[in-house]
Specification:
Helix content is 36%, strand content 15%. The protein has 2 domains: 160 residues, nicotinate phosphoribosyltransferase, CATH 3.20.140; 133 residues, Aldolase class I (TIM Barrel), CATH 3.20.20. The model has no long low-confidence stretch (mean pLDDT 92). Helix 4 packs antiparallel against helix 6 and helix 10 packs parallel to helix 12. It has a 6-stranded antiparallel sheet. It has 13 helices and 14 strands. Helix 10 links the parallel strand 8 and strand 9. The chain is of the alpha/beta class. The radius of gyration is 25 Å and the shape is elongated.
Length: 365
């Protein structure tokens, strides 16, 4: 008898089909499949059809937050032959796993699903890396929101999947519509350095153009273009007052802001975006009554850098994180471990016991 949790997941998987993930149809023809899997399928179909195998997927990193499981199941549902004949056991996206712990098992005729092995490996590796990175960033942020700026660090095809992997861990502020497609959201942001450059470095002019073009929006001003964060923040705040929602500091790590020319640090590194610059910026804004203006920081942020800011109690309202979120940290492998109900695997890769895997029920409703 199917329990309530299995029914709930069955309905979810039924929705997570090609309509949701927009898988390229070329997957069906093996365009994204390692060629030796295609050759093997042709051999099996001719000489050894209907051999029932069990394939398990695992990786080697401890404390990994798995993601891509539901996407992999949807992939199988969409492209395998006779998915109704397959037995699928899986964990849930967001579960934490240890080294060599199976996250997905598929049992059925090899020729029906085997060619999807490498595609599933890639999905699980990418999504689990992003979800684990996201979890670490959010933990370091100590409850403060994080904005995913991970749209320019990799091929654009990765944006939607990366957005989902971060979303299930708690990030719903993203740069592009593709990253937000999973929950029907929209990308956010106001201006890049390019707009300020076109205004010859005049941040106020750039904000004026923005305010006129988007009259219903408040402004988040990018204030590091001239490497004089506090001066430019105050200029914008004095001009726009309550219309200014936030300032974003994105100073390169190769630069030292002009504030430190008159206020040299005795301890700490003054390069780039640092806690002491943010403390000084907050103080300057507050002294002129701009207590409502939020401070956003970006440029090279990772858990270690965020932890430094939190230890120093830097008055940050939002962290912008890019590269770290989408850095690969693991790789999954799919192994055949059972043949026609009996153990059969290469040495060192036998069936790994698990009491956490749950049977997935396909549903057409």
């Amino acid at each position: 008898m199917v329990n309530e949790i299995e029914l709930k997941r069955a309905k979810k998987i039924a929705r997570l089909t090609n309509r949701t993930f927009q898988f390229p149809e070329a997957i069906r023809q093996g365009f994204y499949t390692a060629n030796y899997f295609l050759k093997t399928r042709s051999i099996i179909e001719r000489f050894m059809p209907k051999q029932i195998v069990t394939m398990q997927f695992f990786q080697w990193q401890p404390n990994l937050t798995v993601c891509g499981v539901d996407e992999s199941i949807a992939l199988i549902h969409t492209f395998s032959h006779h998915p109704e004949n397959l037995k699928i056991e899986a964990l849930e996206d967001g579960d934490e796993v240890q080294s060599k712990e199976p996250v997905l098992r598929i049992t059925g005729a090899y020729e029906d699903f085997g060619f999807l092995e490498s595609t599933i490996d890639g999905i699980l590796s990418r999504r689990s890396s992003v979800s684990t990175n996201t979890k670490e960033v959010l933990k370091a942020a100590n409850g403060k929101p994080v904005f995913s700026m991970a749209d320019r660090q990799d091929d654009y095809h990765t944006q939607s999947g990366d957005g989902y992997a971060s979303f299930i861990m708690g990030i719903d502020r993203v740069s592009t519509d593709a990253q937000a497609a999973w929950w029907g959201g929209k990308g956010m942001g106001t201006m890049p350095h390019a707009l300020i450059q076109m205004c010859r470095g005049d941040i106020v002019k750039a904000c004026e153009y923005y305010a006129e073009q988007f009259p219903q929006e408040k402004i988040t001003a990018l204030v590091d273009y001239n490497n004089d964060v506090i001066t430019d923040s105050l200029r914008v705040a004095r001009r726009f007052k309550e219309r200014l929602k936030a300032v974003r500091v994105d100073t390169s790590s190769s630069l030292i802001d002009r504030y430190f020319e008159k206020n040299p640090l005795k301890l700490g590194d003054a390069h780039g975006v640092n806690p002491w610059l943010i403390h000084a910026l907050r103080k300057a804004l507050d002294l002129e009554g701009f207590t409502y203006v939020q401070i956003i920081v970006s440029s090279g942020f990772n858990p270690e850098k965020i932890a430094l800011f939190e230890r120093e109690k830097a008055p940050v309202n939002l962290y912008g994180v890019g590269l770290y979120l989408v850095t690969l940290r693991t790789n999954f492998t799919g192994d055949l471990v059972m043949l026609n109900g009996k153990p059969e695997a290469k040495v060192g890769r036998g069936l790994i016991p698990s009491n956490r895997l749950k049977t997935v029920i396909f549903s057409s409703k």
